[in-house]
Specification:
By secondary structure, this protein is α/β, with parallel strands linked by helices. It contains five helices and six strands, in the order αααβαββββαβ. It has a six-stranded mixed β-barrel with strand order 1-5-2-4-3-6. The two termini are 43 Å apart. It folds into two domains: 3-57, no CATH class; 68-166, Beta Barrel (Barwin-like endoglucanases), CATH 2.40.40.10. The site of zinc ion has 7 residues, from helix 4 and helix 5.
Amino acid sequence: MGKKAIKGLWGVVNNPVSLINVFLVAAVIYLSCVVTGVKGTSGPITLLSTTVMEPGNFTLTSEQSGDWRTVRMRVTAYCPCQKCCGKHAKGITASGYKIHRGDTLVAADKKYSFGTEMVIPGYNSGRPVKVLDRGSAIYGNRLDVLFDSHEQALKWGVRDIYVKVRY
Ligand SMILES: [Zn+2]
């Protein structure tokens, strides 16, 4: 890199907007290095990559990475009927996913993005289910688990339980 190029770089650094662009370009270069497996292009990049790959930073529970955190939740239940979902219920969740018989999924607050996995004791045989729906009364630490029939939903009732959430 010549003297002229360095001067040009400082011009970029002094301009905050360009600085953001420099960071974005650096991020793209970093990511493409990871994807193509290029190693050791410079000190800081190698260091960052080491930090990200550090296995002690989180616990791998299955094929996806992410922490399971336990949160106490108030869990109610619903079914695709008009009583539960309103007069115009068509069996389509807030995520756009269409409910099929036998499906297990959960409605949760906006802070849990669609696809977030949860383990809800007593539901789906303790296997993880995904957040695929919302509900007007489902905010904060409130959840609504889906059942096929209204009878099953009533049977669930209201449960204050510890739910595992994958972040
Ligand atoms: Zn119902």
